[in-house]
Each structure stands twice: as structure tokens, then as C-alpha cells.
Amino acid sequence: AGNIGxxxxxxxxxxxxxxxxxxxxxxxxxRFSGLGALVVQEESIEESKHVPGIPNLAIxxxxxxxxxxxxxxxxxxxLDILGGVRIVGSLNNNNNDSSNTGDxxxxxxxxxxxxxxxxxxxxxxQLSETRPDERIxxxxxxxxxxxxxxxxxxxxxxxxxRELSVSLNMSRFVVPQYDDFDAIPLYLxxxxxxxxxxxxxxxxxxxxxxxxxxxRYYRDQRSGNEQIIVLSKVLNxxxxxxxxxxxxxxxxxxxxxxxxxxxELVDVIVRKMEGxxxxxxxxxxxxxxxxxxxxxxxxxxxxxxxxxxxxxxIASWCSMEAISKELRDEVGKNEPSETKRxxxxxxxKGMRHVLERA
Length: 358
Fold this sequence. Notes:
single chain, alpha+beta, six-stranded antiparallel β-sheet, 11 helices, elongated
């Protein structure tokens, strides 16, 4: 960490400590949500506790208003308003409390003040009354609040001034943003096909033209625990001849099932596969109506599993976090031996064998 430093505002630290003290905790599906949760690890508990993270106004961004022509077009000159920023668009956040009441910012709104503090046309606010010449970004008025707090907004909408009361919520990005914070490496290997949830760290690792097409998903807000599952690559083997070189495809279905996240995909693979063939349907970003089908014999997939894993030096067919708690509990119930249970987790065949005992 040479020459790298971070300054965390004292207000954010204070909010974090107070949320820990108040035992605030987010839902399980909000733990990997893109700036959606801050993590605290206590020695007395086995798992980390996730408290609500940094709130926002559920907007896509803002535009400064130094342009006289733009200010005139928005109606600021008529009302003799000197400050404000234009809202470029709003996030489609189904979990935002204010979205249900209609009290939310919209595209082309001009945000004039937050909690009575005026916003300059350059998007800044006065740091404090004692330091009037120092200014900071207006977003600090939001990020220093706790999730769930209400803020009063002075807004110019369609050239009419109005007051909005907005509940601050956290972003729930369908594509996780930061490595080892909300984006952790989850994967599943079946028939040499490597599936993983889409995340910005994954895209930055690939750095090719096809992966940049995923940018259409980056600002989408998640509903529940959904993820975008992608076929990251195909590990060449006899079982998947005809599909070598396939990558960066979005998973649609497996034998008719449409898993919403990687845990559901694992569940489908180990518990719901029926028939002789495994049909995996994928699509290219922007071509959602076009299906690309990977068809493999289920028996050949099972027989080739150890060969594929050993050839490519992969310890387990899926990451442990990709197995849901319910599925782990069921495996634990059917296999009391911890050693055998751990071995079963390493292969799809092993997990199926344990589950079939029920």
C-alpha cells in the first residue's frame, strides 16, 4: 500500500459505530449489493455482521448548470434562482421507500437545496458557516446520513418549485462493483462450462470488446437476490466439443429452469436434472431473443467431471459460497460424517449421491 491513503469522514465512522451499537443489519440478499453494506467482524460470532452502508438519492447522476442557455431553458432565470444542479436520471430502484410514494427525484429536475442548504450551480455547498470560502460536493449532505433517514429537497420541476421528502436508501446493484467487498469470486463448473455472477472486477479482468457490452447492466438495481449469471469460459474437453472458445454469454436456462442466481443454479444442477441430456441456453448481450444452446449428455458430464477438474487443476466443482444454506443443511442431514461431507462438496456427482439418499 505504498503512497496510498484513504480519509474517511468522521460522520461516516460515527454512523457506522452507531449502527453497530443499534444492531442494524441488512437482509441476506443485500449483503452483496454494491456499496450496500459495511461489514463488521466480531470475534464472538462465526459470521460477519452486515450493517446498512452508504445511502444515496437514487439518481443516475447530476449536471452542473454554469451554462446560461441551459439555466434559461430550465426556467431558473425566470425565478431568479442562481444555484442548483440538473438531475440526469433516476435509478429504477424497486427497494427505495420513496419510490412507492412518488416522492423521488426525476430526470430534468433541478435540485436546489438539501435540508435547507443551498447547492451552487457548480454542484458544491458551503463547507461550514465558519469556513464560507471552502466548498465541497453536495453529495456529502446525503452520504453523511444513515440509511432510512429522510431529507427535505427543494426542487424545480417543469419550471415549478416544490418540496420533496425523500427516504434515503442504499444502492442494490445487480452487478457488484468492488472486489472483495460486494463482489466475491463465485463459480460453478459443469461439463467444463464455467459459470459465474457478472461483476465489475470480472469484467476488468477480461478487458476485451465483448465484455464491455455488459455495461448496459451496471446501473441496474436488483430486486431480491437476483444475479446475472454468465458463461465465463469453456474448459476444453471431449465432453464439450463444439463449444470450445465460447465465453461472455448470459445464462438463460438449464433444462427449462431459469435460475435467478448462482445458488439456484447449483440447486438445479444437483437436484432437478432429469433426462438424458443437459440443455444450457445462453444469449449474447443485446440479442436476448437469440438462444445459443450447449447440449451435453448428462452421463458424459458426470463421468468427465474428475477429468476436467484435474486437468485444469480445480479443487472443487463450485465455490462453497455458491451452495445455499438450505442445500448445505440437507447434505449435512444425509451425511453425518464431516470428512465425507466435505469430500461430497467437491464434486457434483458427490453431492448428488448424498442427496439421493433421502
